[in-house]
Write a structure and sequence with these properties.
Layout (H helix, E strand, L loop, with lengths): L4 H17 L2 E2 L17 E6 L5 H17 L3 E5 L8 H12 L6 E5 L2 H8 L7 H7 L1 H4 L2 H5 L2 E2 L2 E2 L2 E2 L3 E2 L2 E5 H7 L8 H13 L3 E3 L8 H24 L9 H14 L11 H9 L3 E5 L5 H7 L8 E5 L6 E5 L1 E3 L8 H12 L1 H11 L10 H4 L4 H12 L1 E4 L9 H17 L2 H15 L2
Helix pairs in contact: 1-2, 2-15, 10-11, 10-18, 11-19, 18-19
The structure holds beta-D-galactopyranose.
Length: about 450
């Protein structure tokens, strides 16, 4: 069974989300008679993620509700750690993995991030599940490539997120006569200037050092918008030229865009930043599509008339993406419960229950016409873009660079937030690539 974001919240919202906050949800719904454990004993499943904000936590609960329909005897232990893009969660997880005390399953991102865990020998091979359920054929091949090593599969993707999305406040754009879909950075800069003159926040973001990933997210979309998909991909191959004039030009654009991002509001999470756009304090935000729930659910806004979306300037035809996955860590305490969870994550009903609430699309290759109707207008657009666009991997969200490389980029971005020195930023990125490119 699948449900839309609105009906999920109407049906279960307050109760499930409140229960999640207590950290422990015991199975309480569902009609199927399955359980876990070779002996059929009730199981317990510790799920580690960073889904605590906005639609993230609602989506996780929607997935858990669907899971409990066929696994009523497995209690769900929510180990979500607050912090957008997993900054805090990843650090805590690293400690647990080093102490050989893994959760039963943890959130990871397809690509370099999953690769880090494979290299460290922290994940079990899940090829048997792929064979059993035919996922090696039914999942999107581009995503599959990112969770494989030596022909073996190491995690189960549950979504595809769209990273290069420009969100806007429609009434502000209309009133000021500016487009919600500027075609390139120069047009965008003109629009930002118009908003600034009107006394509003042009581009909403938190500039707090603890939220530097929001700024890195903007930076990567400007790099893609300037270098295009091929130029972006080339940066992540060994020998990618971070010193090039093209990168300099892109970072200059980034610098100009950031001049219109005052960071008003301090250390705001991504959904609090979205609220600045949704409530008419700011005109634009560059953020992944997990934030769509902030507009639709949290603020109850209508698509197109009250908020709008478009590819970030210059990225038309490119789908910059990330894909959240779940894993079977080596040493997981309740392996059977984890396998039941991963089976749910790979299922159509699990992915629909999750993605329709999260603001994401399923990682399966084909979404049928009936299934498509579960998705709201933004997500239907995203489904089409995924099919038609050139796909590119995200930096901030784990696809193209390892954790160590990302940390070095974080340091360069944090320094930039302190001194606004864009030349130093580029040198920091050059040094990071020199040290970590593979
Ligand atoms: C991303 C993740 C999304 C969303 C976002 C904000 O890295 O892929 O699922 O949670 O962070 O926290």
């Amino acid at each position: 069974m699948t449900i839309s974001r609105r009906s999920f919240l109407a049906a279960t919202g307050a109760a499930s989300v409140a229960a999640a906050g207590t950290g422990l949800l015991t199975a309480c719904s569902g009609t199927a008679q399955s359980s876990t454990g070779a002996d059929g004993a009730p199981g317990s499943l510790e799920v580690f993620s960073w889904w605590t904000a906005g639609g993230e936590k609602d989506a996780l609960m929607s997935l858990v509700d669907d899971f409990h329909r066929s696994n009523p005897n497995i209690s769900f232990v929510n180990r979500a750690v607050t912090g957008g893009a997993g900054d805090a969660a990843k650090k805590l997880l690293a400690q647990r993995l080093a102490a050989k005390n893994p959760p039963d399953t943890f959130q990871a991102q397809a690509g370099a991030m999953v690769g880090d865990y494979i290299t460290a020998g922290q994940l079990e091979d899940l090829t048997f599940l792929y064979r059993q359920h035919g996922w090696d054929k039914s999942f999107n091949q581009q995503v599959l490539k990112l969770i494989q090593r030596d022909g073996k599969y190491y995690s189960v993707p549950v979504d595809i997120h769209h990273i290069n999305v420009l969100w806007s406040n429609t009434p502000i754009c209309r009133r000021l006569g500016i487009s919600s879909a500027p075609k390139d950075i120069p047009e965008f800069l003109g629009n930002l200037h118009t908003v600034q003159k009107a006394g509003l926040i042009p581009l909403a973001v938190s500039r707090d050092p603890g939220q530097e990933w929001q700024v890195k997210h903007i930076m990567e979309t400007v790099l893609v918008g300037t270098l295009k998909a091929d130029g972006w991909a080339a940066l992540w191959r060994g020998g990618g030229d971070w010193n090039s004039a093209a990168v300099t030009r892109a970072l200059q654009y980034f610098h100009q865009v950031m001049a219109f991002a005052p960071g008003t509001g301090g250390a705001m999470s991504w959904d609090q930043v979205s609220a600045q756009v949704g409530t008419g304090k700011a005109a634009y935000q560059i953020m992944g599509d997990w934030t769509e729930a902030s507009f639709t659910v949290t603020l109850g806004l209508q698509p197109h008339t009250e908020y709008d979306w478009a590819p970030t300037p210059g990225t038309q035809g490119v789908f910059l993406f990330a894909s959240d996955c779940f894993t079977l860590p080596v040493g997981a305490r309740d392996r059977d419960a984890t396998i039941a969870w991963l089976t749910e994550c790979g299922s159509q009903s699990g992915q629909d229950a999750f993605t329709t609430v999260k603001g994401a699309i399923p990682p399966r290759a084909d979404v049928g016409a009936d299934e498509r109707t579960l998705f709201d207008p933004y997500l239907q657009w995203s489904l089409d873009e995924w099919k038609q666009n050139t796909v590119a991997g995200s930096l901030t969200h784990g696809v193209v660079a390892s954790g160590a490389w990302n940390a070095a980029v974080d340091a360069a971005v944090t320094a930039y937030l302190g001194d606004s020195d864009v030349n130093r930023l580029q040198q920091g990125l050059v040094a990071a690539a020199r040290q970590y490119a593979v």
